[in-house]
């Protein structure tokens, strides 16, 4: 099984494997490159803020905000993989997201992990 065949949660066409675990079964870490991250801050537009306010009064999913957060997380993850690739990594271990409010104007999403070079464990 090659890295591209491993079902690790990133886009199938990605050449950088991203996992939340400390290792990848069947692979060994040949080189630790270091921390990588992808950061983005998004603000909500006025229409979604009004809709979210009304929806919060009656309950239910805030679909517009959910869509925005998914897009934001995807952008942060793309930036993380771009940084890992640029530094010569073929994998990111211990991948995590951190989400915070940015001064009441938007949401900051940071994707982070450890960039590494991995190879099949049976390679000498």
From TrEMBL:
InterPro entries assigned to the protein according to its UniProt record, in alphabetical order: UPF0145_dom_sf, UPF0145_YbjQ-like
Family: Belongs to the UPF0145 family.
Protein name, UniProt field: UPF0145 protein FQU76_19285
